[in-house]
Amino acid sequence: MAAGASLLAGVGIAEAMERSNHKTRNMKITVLTGSPRRNGNTNHLAGQFIKGATEAGHEVYRFDCAGHKIAGCMGCNACGMNGECVLKDDFDELRPHLLEADMVVFATPMYYFGFSSQLKSVIDRFYALNGQIKGAPKQSAFLMAYANTAPQEAEPMVSHYKTLLNYLGWQDRGMVIAPGMWPAGAVEGTSYSKQAYELGRSL
Ligand SMILES: Cc1cc2nc3c(=O)[nH]c(=O)nc-3n(C[C@H](O)[C@H](O)[C@H](O)COP(=O)(O)O)c2cc1C
Question: Which terminus of the chain is more solvent-facing, meaning fewer CB atoms within 10 Å of its CB: N or C?
Answer without folding.
Answer: N
